[in-house]
Structures are given as structure tokens and as C-alpha cells.
Amino acid sequence: MSLEQRVTELEVRLAFQDDMLASLSTELATQQRIIERLQQQVVQLARRQEDMQVHVGEPIIDVPPPHY
């Protein structure tokens, strides 16, 4: 294999790796946004659950229906 062929092969590999690195970086940024959104949703769900637990202990007022 000549020196020119080796350099060409290395350039091709470098171009492929640059493209792959850019793709991975884009995908990582997308995944990070998804993770942040999911974390916000978990926090919101935890708050809703806490709010619901507060109301579970309250007594239910037994009001007769209006037709009585």
C-alpha cells in the first residue's frame, strides 16, 4: 500500500469520524432535552401526588342528595 493510499484512507476515516461525532453530538443534545423534560414531569407528578395525599385524610361530608 502506497503512502498516498494510506493518507487517502486516513482522510476518509477522519471524515467519517467527524460526521459520526457531529451526529452523536446532535443526538446527545436531543437526549438531554428529553431527560430534562422528563425530570420536570416527574417533579410535577410528585407535587400532584403530595397534593392528593393531603386530601386523602380529609373527612368526606355526607350530604343527602337534593331529592330528599
UniProtKB/TrEMBL annotation:
<dbReference type="Pfam" id="PF04102">
    <property type="entry name" value="SlyX"/>
</dbReference>
<feature type="coiled-coil region">
    <location>
        <begin position="21"/>
        <end position="55"/>
    </location>
</feature>
<comment type="similarity">
    <text>Belongs to the SlyX family.</text>
</comment>
<protein>
    <recommendedName>
        <fullName>Protein SlyX homolog</fullName>
    </recommendedName>
</protein>
<dbReference type="InterPro" id="IPR007236">
    <property type="entry name" value="SlyX"/>
</dbReference>
<keyword id="KW-0175">Coiled coil</keyword>
